[in-house]
Amino acid sequence: MRALVLAAALALVATLAPAVQPDEVLADPALESRAREISQGLRCLVCRNENIDDSNAELARDLRLLVRERLTAGDSDTEVVDFITDRYGEYVLLKPTTGGANWLLWGAGPLMLVLGLGIGALFVRRRSQGAASREDALSPEEEQRLQALLKE
């Protein structure tokens, strides 16, 4: 039983461990720290919602190496991110920018919510007004005739 629990714990630790291989780690701790920070914000294009630092995919490894290569070449953090974004598109960012055409995407959700609430309120208001006007729709003669028909 202990062996089973130990194996499960080791499997859990192995899946939670970052995918960065020892041969990828830079000798300079400051550069390595910057590389890890940048990698946390870049999406693995194979795994979709996993950052490249945690992904075991081959493309994620290539991106991690590219980040480290650009940093050792002297690029700043923003230059590295811009280089990778230019190469792979804005989808590679885990937190997309809010500029340009993305404003439409960021604003569409709240706009649709407000629009839906407005349409719902208008529907409820018209329906309640329609019910009140339908109650007053019968004239006295029609009411008498209806009562006569119901008695038969």
TrEMBL record:
Keywords associated with the record: Cytochrome c-type biogenesis, Heme, Iron, Membrane, Metal-binding, Signal, Transmembrane, Transmembrane helix
Gene Ontology terms: cellular component: plasma membrane
Keyword Signal attached: yes
UniProt keyword Glycoprotein present: no
Span of the signal peptide: 1-19
Residues annotated as transmembrane: 103-124
GO biological process: cytochrome complex assembly
Location of the CcmH/CycL/Ccl2/NrfF N-terminal domain: 8-150
Molecular function GO terms recorded: metal ion binding
Role noted for this protein: Possible subunit of a heme lyase.
Entry's family note: Belongs to the CcmH/CycL/Ccl2/NrfF family.
Protein name in UniProt: Cytochrome c-type biogenesis protein
